[in-house]
Amino acid sequence: MSSIDHFWELILGTIIALVPLINPLAAAPTFLAITEGDTAARRNQQLFMACIYMVVILVGFLVGGSFIMSFFGLSMPGLRIAGGLLVASIGSTMLFSAPSNPEQEHAEAKAKRDIAFSPLAMPMLAGPGAIAVTLGFTSLARGPADYLAIIIGILTVALMIYVTLRLSGKIVRVIGQTGMNALTKIMGFLLLCIGIQFVVNGVLGIATDPAVLHRIRDAFVS
């Protein structure tokens, strides 16, 4: 595989992994609920800042991922398995949970004066699942160009979220609550598949680790 192909694969992989997880279409009713009563200018300003915060959070964990892993003694396969389990759990919850009630779930959030960082940026846009996926992508980065590709993917997702939520009023009217619930189920299934694949990659990483293979061989020899 050429470096250019790997570069584009990282960009597309980042987008494909984060979009179902964040699910901006399903987040549209919630965004409208927690910004109810705001002017269009105020709503757009809060959305813009939330996207900026999301990029800063995810890029921060991407760049600092190696330090975080070394500080806590984490391995790449372990990180993949943990992140995969978390993402799969979120996906299964989205797939099997009952239809949500945005007004009831975010009654407290509606009272907040500034919702750009919390709850909009965290945990809605850059929650634990998105952070876990971003940390997982550090295991695929081989150099500065790969980190740049992942950052481009994150920026693309942020742009998609901004455009989608800015049009949230029209989207909710067109798709309707039933369509939103169906979309959530589809996104949940995709997340479940992504999470399981992360676990599989982590298990394969452990199984093919030379140190592990040497210990197994030594155990049989002894």
Radius of gyration: 19 Å
Q: How many strand elements?
A: 0
Shape: elongated
Major pleated sheet:
none
Q: Helix/strand/pairing class, anyone?
A: mainly alpha
Distance from N terminus to C terminus (CA atoms, Å) equals 40 Å
Q: Indicate the mean pLDDT.
A: 79
How many discrete domains? 1
Order of helices and strands: HHHHHHHHHHHH
Poorly predicted tracts of residues = none
Counted by DSSP, the helix tally is 12
β-sheet strand percentage: under 5%
Helix content: over 70%
General description of the model:
By secondary structure, the protein is mainly alpha-helical. The protein contains twelve helices and no strands. It has one domain. Helices cover 84% and strands 0% of the residues. The mean pLDDT is 79.
Summarize the structure.
The protein has twelve helices and no strands. It is an all-alpha fold and 222 residues long.
Write the layout of secondary structure elements.
Blueprint: H1 3-22, H2 24-34, H3 40-63, H4 65-72, H5 76-96, H6 102-105, H7 107-110, H8 116-125, H9 128-137, H10 144-166, H11 168-207, H12 210-221
Helix pairs in contact: 1-9, 1-10, 2-10, 2-11, 3-4, 3-8, 3-9, 3-10, 5-9, 5-11
Name a few traits of the molecule.
222 residues; 84% helix; elongated
